[in-house]
Amino acid sequence: MGTPSIESAPSDHQVDMGREPKFIIKPKIHHSVVFDKYLGFHSIFLIIAGILQAIQGNVNGELSKTLGGGFAAWLSFCIGFVILLVYFLVESKGGTTIQWRTLFKQAPWWCWMGGLVGSMFVLLITLIIPYRGSAVTNGIPICVQLISSVIYDHFGILGLQTRRLSLLRLSGSLLMVGGILMVSLG
């Protein structure tokens, strides 16, 4: 069999997420639109994530007025580190379910950029939100994130499954740009 790979010992969550949905509803909106049974469940968590992201920017921005942007962003990551460490230790049973050597050998080089990218994002939001407000400071990155994500999906960048650009996706992206322009200029 050889050495075990990262994929050979997925967590229960990864196994569940990797399964094909048991039923698929094909709405009459467009033939490429597919809703699976997890869409509503995942959407609830993504809505919560969006709310938390806006709160985080506002809180860090207010803290940066008093203590400086760099300290506010650093403090945010320190507190987040503690919470994520607890989650990691519970999920990985103290790190025992992770095949460390395999992970470092098989993971692509770009997988290690998450902390760098995340910290830059938090720092930039923290520095700008006191001057531009929450709607503009959160809205523009969300719009750019959507457009970038559509491009990443289309080309399968960074290991993503390819999801071709459709007229529906392009229209949604353009609507988002229009909405952000209205919020920013209003």
From TrEMBL:
Alphabetical list of Pfam families matching this protein: DMT_YdcZ
Transmembrane segments: 38-59, 71-90, 110-129, 135-155, 167-185
Superkingdom of the organism of origin: Eukaryota
Keyword DNA damage tagged: no
InterPro entries associated with the record: YdcZ
Gene Ontology annotations for the cellular component aspect, listed alphabetically: plasma membrane
Swiss-Prot/TrEMBL keywords: Membrane, Transmembrane, Transmembrane helix
Name under which the protein is recorded: DMT family transporter
Species whose genome carries this gene: Mycoemilia scoparia
